[in-house]
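Attaching the record inline, Q. Sequence:
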Amino acid sequence: MIVHLANAFEEEIEMLDTRIAEMGGLAEQAIAQAVDALEHRDPGLANATLENGRAIDWLERAVEELAISLIARAHPTSQDLRRIVTALRIAIDLKRIGDLAGNIAKGAIAIANEPHPKQAVHGFVHIGEIALRQLKDALDAYSQRDAGKALKAWEQEQQVDAMYNSLYRELLAATMDEPRNAGLYAQLLFGAKNLERVGDHATNIAETTYFLISGTAIAGERPVPIGTNFTLFAPSEKNRV
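Structure, as predicted:
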């Protein structure tokens, strides 16, 4: 009987990992879809991104309910409790990433009929590629329980921030040169800011994963390049759980 209960408990904890893997896959897909939707002015793809966001929300609630149930029923050991809390924290970050993808998708719908400046869009797409790679590395670190990969993903935040600041300056200058297109440039910058925040949440996931594996926090402050503490269109605070 005791062995049966222990096996059932382990299966439920493994279900948390399964849910996180599902959420992670949907979050990666949502970011890729949102970037493509804005790049190609595709409302249909933007709506598909919003559907993905709803699926991510459902999975986040499922993870939360299972985590609370496990804590209440099983009185887990400290090691198991760390696994449960880690899954819960990562689920929250993934939900917020889904929300950010939804924000980009809504922006894509808003400017679907606007001409897109190729250079600015190229910069936006590049931020998306870096943020998506960071997210993938962080999720791989969690699924593989790889502290080295978690640290690598954590260090990539600097690249996302640097790209955002470069595009910020470019779009600010373009807005002053072409005030008639200010709304378009603002939407592009909103989208870029959302991708920068995706990087913040990927960094959260990397930090949480590193602690799960090593039992210690990553030493030092997050690597942030000079000039990242300003923005015109959105707050620059990091969104940490």
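The chain is about 80% helix and 0% strand. Confidence is low (pLDDT under 50) at residues 226-241.

More tomorrow.
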